[in-house]
């Protein structure tokens, strides 16, 4: 019978003592992400930039140079080819052709005629106009903004304004660094990866809320303990849950990245990064930001008698300065 060793539930790691280091590191990552987006830009997929996308499978390992030369001779404008997973899979990007949809279909047919028997299977053929791509960019940005604001208002309603500000800043950090990650790696940024960004925000706030909930309970319970000590204790008491949840999620995402195929590789890689950075920000950034907002216990006297723990048992308020064992 296998033995399962549980993680300790009441660690004493001085996270808050390193809060300035965490905040400096986060500020550096945000700055680098903004620089990468400004200089390298994002490798927008056909969803956002418009154009023709053709995914083919050849009977033998593809000769990209030959294929590029043959398609380039058709006079269709800017094209790009890249190996897409297996050596026999190739992704062809062609700029939007002048004219309406008929012109785009004509360009697709020219490519098919030129490649002929060299292609074993056309796995995907897509066309998106630049107007649609621009609208999708705008809608994606608005979706991200409204998601952040909605989360912030919920945290404000559920806790206090200090918690809302800290959570919003931590989530903004997660999203900016995730976009910077895509700018660095140049993985295709499309609708699927935008969905990954929003998923990352949801995952990160879930971890943050768990920690914030413990922070609020401990602030109520230890009325005279220094706030920084209460925050540190709250992080340590939720750390095992945070680590276990993140590790099990990462195991599933790594399997998806390795075995899921090239089509969802960018999505799974973005989620792997997001879960990692979201876990870090919940512990190393959100709580220090909460401390920076001068959060304090503010429970009306009539509520103090009704405090209960997660098991429904009454909590006795601790007035001593010593930490609970």
From TrEMBL:
Give the UniProt record's GO annotations in the biological process aspect: intracellular protein transmembrane transport; protein targeting; protein transport by the Sec complex
Provide the membrane topology annotation. Multi-pass membrane protein
The family database entries (SUPFAM superfamilies) matched by this protein are listed as:
Multidrug efflux transporter AcrB transmembrane domain
* UniProt keyword Membrane present: yes
The residues covered by the Protein export membrane protein SecD/SecF C-terminal domain are: 120-292
Q: Where in the cell is it found?
A: Cell membrane
Give the record's keywords alphabetically.
Cell membrane, Membrane, Protein transport, Translocation, Transmembrane, Transmembrane helix, Transport
Q: Major location, coarse class?
A: membrane
Q: Which residues cross the membrane?
A: 21-39, 140-157, 164-185, 191-215, 243-264, 270-291
The record's Gene Ontology cellular component field reads: plasma membrane
Checking InterPro entries in the record gives:
SecD/SecF_arch_bac, SecD/SecF_bac, SecD/SecF_CS, SecD_SecF_C, SecD_SecF_C_bact, SecF_bac
One term of GO molecular function: protein-transporting ATPase activity
Q: Which NCBIfam families match?
A: 2A0604s01, transloc_SecF
Subunit architecture: Forms a complex with SecD. Part of the essential Sec protein translocation apparatus which comprises SecA, SecYEG and auxiliary proteins SecDF-YajC and YidC.
- Tell me the function of this protein: Part of the Sec protein translocase complex. Interacts with the SecYEG preprotein conducting channel. SecDF uses the proton motive force (PMF) to complete protein translocation after the ATP-dependent function of SecA.
State the family it belongs to.
Answer: Belongs to the SecD/SecF family. SecF subfamily.
**Protein's name in the database:** Protein-export membrane protein SecF
Tell me the organism.
Kiloniella litopenaei
């Amino acid at each position: 019978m296998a033995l399962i060793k549980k993680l300790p539930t009441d660690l004493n790691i001085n996270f808050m003592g390193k809060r300035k280091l965490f905040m400096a590191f986060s500020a550096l990552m945000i700055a680098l992400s903004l620089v990468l987006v400004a200089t390298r830009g994002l490798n927008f997929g056909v969803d956002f930039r418009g154009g023709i996308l053709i995914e083919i499978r050849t009977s033998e390992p593809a000769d990209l140079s030959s294929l590029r030369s043959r398609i380039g001779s058709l006079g269709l404008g800017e094209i790009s080819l890249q190996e897409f997973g297996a050596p026999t899979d190739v992704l062809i990007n062609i700029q939007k052709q002048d004219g309406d949809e008929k012109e785009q279909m004509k360009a697709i047919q020219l490519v098919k005629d030129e490649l002929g028997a060299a292609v074993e299977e056309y796995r995907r053929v897509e066309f998106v106009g630049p107007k649609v791509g621009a609208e999708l960019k705008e809608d994606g940005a608005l979706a991200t903004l409204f998601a952040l604001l909605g989360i912030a208002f919920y945290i404000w309603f559920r806790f206090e304004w200090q918690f809302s500000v800290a959570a919003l800043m931590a989530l903004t950090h997660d999203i900016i660094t995730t976009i910077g990650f895509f700018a660095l790696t140049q993985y295709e940024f499309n609708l699927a990866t935008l969905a990954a960004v929003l998923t990352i925000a949801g995952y990160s706030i879930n971890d943050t809320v768990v920690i914030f909930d413990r922070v609020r309970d401990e602030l109520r319970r230890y009325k005279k303990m220094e706030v920084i000590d209460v925050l540190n204790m709250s992080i340590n008491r939720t750390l095992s849950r945070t680590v276990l949840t993140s590790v099990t999620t990462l195991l599933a995402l790594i399997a998806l990245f390795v075995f899921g195929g090239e089509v969802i590789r960018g999505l799974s890689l973005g989620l792997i990064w997001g879960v990692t950075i979201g876990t870090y920000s919940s512990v190393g950034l959100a709580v220090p930001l909460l401390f920076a907002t001068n959060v304090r216990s503010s429970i009306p006297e009539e509520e103090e008698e009704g405090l209960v723990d997660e098991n429904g048992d009454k909590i006795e308020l601790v007035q001593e300065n010593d930490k609970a064992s």
